[in-house]
Write a structure and sequence with these properties.
The protein is of the alpha/beta class and 281 residues long. The chain has 10 helices and 9 strands. Bound molecules: pantoate.
Length: 281
């Protein structure tokens, strides 16, 4: 496994790889590190689809708001490198901030993620978050020039907005959505779970339980979003629920669920930790 910390090293590698292996494919797994089984499944999927898997480890400052957890975000470089090595990753790219953002913020090209998709749900409480995500993802796409890039369905809004950028800017990259990975009890894996106590983890299980109850209700024939929301909120009682929404793939609210184009999203805080989960239906 090769590890690069500068954009120059990475670009040289990519140029050489592409010229020596013109028919081989490159897969990019963008991450902010603190790797867990969820990331591992992205890496495994990339390895199954592509000849060369590149993982980026970079906690991107531009996607954090002023009062968010940028400085506290877990950083586990040694453990991450070990995981990548064991998982058969070909290249790890772990730049310092100055490598990815060489220009003063007043000189940077910034992004406006599509408002209809970026100012709702996560965007309501995290203004500018998706602009920062698109800024770093496009930089990584331009450096790596991957054939495919792998994103988790857990960050559903991010996945749909990145897909929209690829479509709208005609980027020659295939976005591969990867299913949510859960622990044995159903909790969606997240780097932020590390902040939870044992009791907090038990509380957090209500989140996936609310989605399971929603699935069962849908199977029983309930289609109205309002009724499905009522069922879910009953289970989420005791948690600080930020939102439980039923939307289409353009992230617009649905009165009734529609097969194959419905996304049910929940965000709740447990012990102050903001946890996301969702169901693609
Ligand atoms: O999902 C994440 O970890 C980040 O938002 C991403 C895509 C790596 C961009 O920083």
């Amino acid at each position: 496994m090769q590890v690069f910390t500068t954009t120059q090293e990475l670009r040289e590698f990519i140029a050489q790889y592409k010229s020596q292996n013109p028919t081989k494919t490159i897969g990019l797994v963008p991450t902010m590190g603190a790797l867990h089984k969820g990331h591992l499944s992205l890496i495994e999927t990339s390895r199954a689809h592509c000849d060369c898997t590149i993982v980026s480890l970079f906690v991107n400052p531009t996607q954090f708001g002023a009062n968010e957890d940028f400085s506290q975000y877990p950083r586990k470089k040694e453990a991450d490198l070990h995981i990548c090595n064991k998982a058969g990753v070909n290249v790890v790219f772990m730049p310092e901030i100055e490598q990815m953002y060489p220009l003063d913020s007043t000189l940077q090209i910034t992004f406006n993620a599509p408002k209809a998709m970026a100012n709702v749900l996560e965007g309501k409480t995290r203004p500018g978050h998706f602009n920062g995500v698109l800024q770093i993802v496009l930089k990584l796409f331009n450096l790596v020039r991957p054939n495919k890039a792998f994103f988790g369905q857990k960050d559903a809004q991010q996945l749909l907005i990145v897909q929209k950028m690829v479509q709208d800017l005609f980027l020659p990259i295939q976005i591969i959505p990867c299913p949510i990975v859960r622990n044995e009890e159903g909790l969606a894996l997240s780097s932020r779970n590390a902040y939870l106590s044992a009791n907090g983890i038990q509380q957090a299980l209500k989140i996936s339980a609310s989605l399971n109850a929603t699935t069962k209700a849908i199977m029983r024939g309930i289609k109205e979003s309002q009724e499905l929301k009522r069922i879910a909120l009953e289970i989420l009682e005791g948690l600080e629920v930020e939102y439980f929404e039923i939307v289409n793939h353009e992230l617009q609210p649905l009165e009734q669920i529609q097969k194959d184009s419905t996304l049910i999203l929940v965000v709740a805080r447990v012990e102050g930790v903001r946890l996301l989960d969702n169901l693609w239906f």
